[in-house]
Design brief:
This protein has about 425 residues and is of the alpha/beta class. The chain has helices at about 45-50, 100-105, 115-120, 130-145, 165-175, 200-215, 225-240, 265-270, 285-290, 295-300, 305-335, 360-365, 370, 385-405, 405-410; strands at about 1-10, 65-70, 75-80, 110, 155-165, 185-190, 275-280, 340-345, 410-415. Strands 1-2-4-3-5-6-7-8-9 form a nine-stranded mixed beta sheet, with helices on both faces.
Length: about 425
Amino acid sequence: MVRARGVPYGEAGRFASAAPPRPWTDPRELIERGPVCPQLPSRLAFVTGPVTDGLQRSEDCQVLSITAPNDADGLPVMVWFHGGAYVSGSGESSKYDPDALVAQGRVVVVTVSYRLGIFGYCTPLGVDDDNLGLRDQLLALRWVHDNIAAFGGDPQRVTLFGQSAGGDSVYSLLLSEAADGLYSRAIIQSSPLGMRDGRDVMTAAMRTAAAESLGGADPFAASVEQLHRAQTASLLAAQPFGLISGLAFAPMLGIDPLPVASEVNARVAHVARTVDLFVGCTKLDAAPFVEISPRGSRLRALGPFAKVAARVASAAMTRQVFSGPAERLADRWRSSGGRASVYRLDWSPPDAPLGACHCMDLPLLLGTPDAWAGAPMLGAHPDPVDHRLAREMRRLWSRFAYDGVEGLGAERLRLDASS
């Protein structure tokens, strides 16, 4: 297997759009994991366990890693965008190592890191640019298009795939005209697609809160700690706006490279005609978010009925935020003349505390059993992953990279232990 880690695809000053990196002529060893964007602890560490512990933190985080079979030659390429609500995570995490997917599926996989939180989205007052993390992702795709053939990948067969904020990133790239020609298929996993409308007032409140937190300090010269305090203030200012506050630092419509809201439907119709879509979620995707919400505290007060009530609330929120919007996007795709398939993952280990929750798909596709050992969502069993189901999911994801919806064999898939 061929692997190049921490490959720089861009460079940028703080709050500036990234540009291609300066070329180098001397040999460079690319064997160490690259840096991750400075970030605060993940709110879902109680689900996944630590994701970026042990990795270097740097604002110079425009890096990607490539994994390919030794004999790769013209293979389909899959480009992974990690989740973390746009405020945490990294493609350099061992939890996203794609070795099993590469070996079984005969694909080339690229994992991308990009700027997060206040460094990449909803930048402070006084900063002219925004959607910087999304622009990082675009630059990464251009790097893949220009260079992936050297690793045995086919630049004309590129599948975007991502989970949670990574899936939302894929959707943003579909909406971006600047990404046209850089991919041919898209997989959106557990993206909160129902949380994109009505963000303008919330964004204004967030920017004001960040400015107040900085107290007149120049954001270009502020320390990382000062900016993280401003980011926390922004998140607190977003809380009164309800569900959409859960993805407060998402890319914003109407700011380059995204269209204005009134043009989104036309853009979806345009892209659907040439790009196959695979979209879905887990059965109880919303369970962790119910758990950490004020509603979760009230449900736990119900004593013996708490677990059942939490499952009911999780199922309802999953339909509202994840599965319902996924189905509607697939319907729009088909009505525009495109091909789309929808999946739902029902599997979880028998003692999984939150059932088939958000992130349950990840250890079935990426990482190793050691990387996911101790993830609280998987329960206490020493080998909780259903390896047969993992092989089936990797088969489906890689077949989609080869043949699109036709390779899946169905417009709707239910994935569980009997799949």
